[in-house]
Design a protein that fits this description.
Porin; 1 helix; Outer membrane protein beta-barrel domain-containing protein; about 180 residues; 8 strands
Length: about 180
């Protein structure tokens, strides 16, 4: 568990230290609604930290009619924008993102807690006004996996298998408060 805290500290603060950019006066808040793997159906927000950098968080879940399974994700992320700037924004259109996701998956007799680190590349598409779409793809790497199986259940309950490395994708609608 101590290693997880070290990774979390590196993940959150290293981009801010290495970036070496001046902080911008053009602060803005972006609210997004999206769908992705591992983000699930999520609602989140991002804060513009500098001229090319955003930090954010989101909460996602699965809308299932099956009451025997509940799954949710909390994600912390950092986006570094690069390339040419769009006509409707002062942020460059392309970005690298790094995300740390905490996933809980509760089924009938098992409860699983997972931590994934995701690196991805994406592009923002701005419409007229403050609306737009973000698309990104990348790879998730499992950092930690803990499954608890109810001891009173029959032996045929199997431990869920989550891949150590898996493709990630995300599609988001966003509204940018300037």
């Amino acid at each position: 568990m101590r290693y997880l805290y070290c990774w979390l500290t590196i993940f959150l603060f290293l981009p801010l230290i290495v970036q070496g950019q001046s902080f911008t006066k053009d602060k803005s808040l972006e609210v997004d609604l999206g769908l992705g793997y591992l983000d699930l159906l999520h609602l989140g927000m991002k804060y513009r930290l500098s001229q090319n950098s955003q930090i954010g968080m989101s909460y996602g879940g699965v809308l299932l009619t099956n009451t025997s399974r509940k799954q949710s994700t909390v994600t912390l992320e950092h986006l570094y924008h690069f390339g040419r700037k769009g006509s409707n924004t002062s942020l460059p259109l392309y970005y690298f993102s790094q995300k740390l996701s905490y996933v809980t998956d509760n089924r009938n007799a098992t409860s699983t807690n997972l931590y994934y680190l995701t690196g991805s590349i994406g592009k923002s598409f701005y419409a007229n006004g403050p609306f737009g779409v973000n698309l990104d793809i990348g790879l998730m790497v499992k950092l930690h996996d803990e499954t608890v199986i109810d001891p009173t259940t029959p032996d045929e309950i199997h431990r869920p298998n989550y891949p150590p490395v898996f493709p990630a994708f995300r599609f988001q609608f966003f509204f940018d408060f300037k």
